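Lecture notes, unit on protein representations.

Consider one protein chain, 105 amino acids long.
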Amino acid sequence: MSKESYIERKSVEYAFKTYDAICLKLTTQKGLPDRQFLYKGKSLFVEFKKPDGVDKALQAWWCNRLNDRGFDAIPRVDNIVAFKQLFDLWVVHADETRRQTDKAV
């Protein structure tokens, strides 16, 4: 079983090495997702858990609040493969949105 810190560390390495994403550790407010990833003008918030980790209500509330305000937030990532798949899809969406914005300008 993987520890949460290992899953988080490997996920951050993947985002940075594969996409040169900026990876911020969020520690200022209780319940905020663990990480914020920045890529081409887009922001993704991710809460990491170990596979048998307990979901906390405040963390889910923050992810819902961020999503409701137009940000992308994932309330639970508990393995590296899932992170890579989710992040790859998010990057494709960010790239497409960026292309559409560039055409409009």
